[in-house]
Amino acid sequence: MGSALESLNIHRADDYARDGHPWQAWDRLRREAPVYWYERHDIEPFWAVTRHADILTVSNHPEVFINGGPRLRLCLKHEVEPMRGGLDTFGTERGWDADEPPDLVFMDNPRHRLVRRQSSWAYTQGAMRSMRPHFRALAEAFTAEFIEELEQASARGDTVDFVHGLAAKLPLAAVGEIMGLAPDDWKQILVWSEAVVGEIRESNRLPGESRGRAYYRNMVEFRSYLEDLIEEARLNGRERGGLIDRMVHTPVQGQLLTNQQLNGYILTLIGAGNDTTRNAFSGGVEALLQHPAQCQRLCEEPELMPQAVEEILRWTSPVGSFLRTAAQDFELAGTAIAAGDTVGLFYPSANRDEAVFEDPYRFDITRTSNPHLTFGFGAHFCLGTNLARAELAASLEALLPHLSRLELCGTPRRLVQSHVIGYAELPMRLRRGS
Length: 434
Ligand code: HEM
Description:
Layout: H1 13-19, H2 23-32, E1 35-40, E2 43-49, H3 52-59, E3 65-66, H4 88-93, H5 111-120, H6 125-155, E4 160-161, H7 162-167, H8 169-179, H9 186-196, H10 211-236, H11 243-249, H12 259-272, H13 275-290, H14 292-300, H15 305-316, E5 322-326, E6 330-332, E7 335-337, E8 342-345, H16 347-350, H17 385-399, E9 406-408, E10 413-414, E11 423-425, E12 427-430
Parallel strand pairs: 2-8
Antiparallel strand pairs: 1-2, 3-5, 4-12, 5-8, 6-7, 9-12, 10-11
Helix pairs in contact: 6-8, 6-17, 9-10, 10-11, 10-12, 13-15, 13-17, 15-17
Bound molecules: protoporphyrin IX containing FE (HEM).
């Protein structure tokens, strides 16, 4: 007999920082209570949905399970949910509308569909196909820099952090170019977008500043920067030629988006693709190094790349969950959900569901059926899937010739959050004699 389900923990950022994905807890929930009323002293209760099929059912009913309710991300009772937090004095000083959703993720149809369309054209398969050679060139250059850094560090007996040394670079450059951001600003944007998701490094804290204050200061700086860009685009037309210019000048249902709407929307487009894609890349390279036979196979058969990318996405599952609010009563897999209840969709758990994936804990880059839910499903299905896939393929292709020289070493440090799961630091060195 295992311990009671009440002892399982799937909501605390500190636990994710220490142990990573709570795979065993999710396994038990799928087996014993796939739609489980999760009540703990430090979080408002919610239904934890852990099976692939049930997550699909919820995602297929966006009119029942809405995004526009009070909760979208797991948060402890005293915490302010990320993205909602930045609107307080920054917004009130500018007379922003408190009832306006912070960004498109918080919207429901029909408005969500219209607002999403304003940027989705920039992330289609076709758009990404034309950017592939450019991504490849960027990835080659970043990889060469990283290998040189590794060689110098190894000569000193040192290690290099894979996350900031390589994995963070292409997602940032790609988003910078798509949005039309000045390359000189990218480094600072990385600092802000890390802070927005709670990753505040010591070097990003003013003397005596608490984490909470540092978070808020970063959010205000990021929003002020975007405010200036939006203002500039309004004045100068489509001068920079990036997505920001297009968004400022393209009406939705005959009306241009307001500064408030644009600010949240652009912040999300910049932030959503950074941590997520980099975690998939760093977790994917870790998996390849831990599974040498798979790694060798990919090096010998690079045509397996599309399948390898899908397996890495399933394996690393960087987004832990999203929450929904039931707008009406609903029966989910025999469990009565009442209107007003919160429902948590645990995508990584779906990606280890034995009912869908054969031997789900086997890392297998030749998997042919891989209907993972890493990007969610339905109306809010990740807008950046084509971009993330293109970046991952380009990054891996550039790194393949060097993989056999890389070695994991030291202790990785994980992100302190339950929403995006992955490494804040992943130390590596060159193999001896390589
Ligand atoms: C491996 C990388 C990524 C992962 C794992 C990921 C995962 C997700 C997930 C799980 C959702 C919610 C889906 C749902 O509710 O059904 C989402 C939404 C979203 N993602 Fe991604 N994402 C990634 C990369 C990106 C990139 C590169 C962008 C850049 C544009 C992006 C932009 C967005 C946006 C804007 C949404 C909200 C869509 C909406 O509400 O309509 N993501 N993503």
